[in-house]
TrEMBL record:
Coiled coil: none annotated. SMART domains: Tryp_SPc (SM00020). GO terms for biological process: proteolysis. One of its GO terms (molecular function) is serine-type endopeptidase activity. It comes from Macaca fascicularis (Crab-eating macaque). Keywords: Disulfide bond, Glycoprotein, Hydrolase, Protease, Serine protease, Signal. This is Peptidase S1 domain-containing protein. It holds the Pfam family Trypsin. InterPro entries: Peptidase_S1_PA, Peptidase_S1_PA_chymotrypsin, Peptidase_S1A, Trypsin_dom, TRYPSIN_HIS.
Length: 217
């Protein structure tokens, strides 16, 4: 069973009024060329031009994120458990590996962090955050990801792409950006599957209303 649960992105339009107003729907979601997270595979360069890496001083690569605007990155609140000081973070734009020495990549300083105020841990709501970059990126450096509108239906069984440098096997992080297509699952069914064989989780609600669940069973 390979499941993924995470924050849904529909509230973003309310969190960032006007911040993405100059990014038209026709300008987002385009790879620059046509064309393992567990079960995934190495991706091709520039296939996911909105994918970025987050770096923390003295730690290194800690998380992935998505460019949604020339100056804004969408990521997860759990990436900032160590610190919410924006001066300690950098955003790496471009490239396929977590390495800072990779050609065709840019390291950008962070001006501000906005971490959802309700986030309290892995099984709580609000695992979402925004990073404001110190300066806007040039159009040649990125392509923003498309965001669903508040009323966009997310049908069970729809295929979604997951990308990142997550573990490709037990305790081993990927050295190259990974991609995998996974179907959306019913949240209630997903909740039941997470509790299978885990009596210590009895009575706990793991899949919150602002999360989606996807994966293979």
């Amino acid at each position: 069973m390979g499941l993924r649960a995470g924050p849904i992105l529909l509230l973003l339009l309310w969190l960032l009024p006007g911040a993405h107003g100059d990014v038209l729907p026709s300008e987002c979601g385009h790879s620059k060329e046509a064309g393992r997270i567990v079960g995934g595979q190495d991706t091709q360069e520039e296939r996911w031009p909105w994918q970025v890496g987050l770096w923390l001083a003295s730690v290194g690569h800690i998380c992935g994120g998505s460019l949604i605007h020339p100056r804004w990155v969408l990521t997860a609140a759990h990436c900032f458990l160590r610190s919410e000081d924006p001066r300690l973070y950098r955003v790496k734009v471009g490239g396929l590996t977590p390495s800072l020495s990779e050609p065709h990549s840019t390291l950008v300083t962070v001006k501000r962090l906005l971490v959802h105020s309700s986030y309290r841990g892995a099984t709580t709501s609000g695992d979402i955050a925004l990073m404001e970059l110190e300066f806007p990126l040039q159009a040649s450096q990125f392509s923003p990801v498309c965001l669903p509108g508040p009323q966009t239906p997310l049908a069970i069984g729809s295929l979604c792409w997951v990308t990142g440098w997550g573990s490709t096997q037990e305790r081993a992080l990927a050295s190259v950006l990974q991609e995998v297509a996974v179907p959306l699952l019913d949240s209630n069914a997903c909740e039941l599957m997470y509790h299978l064989g885990e009596p210590s989780l009895a009575g706990q609600r793991l899949i919150q209303d602002d999360m989606i669940c996807a994966g293979s069973v």
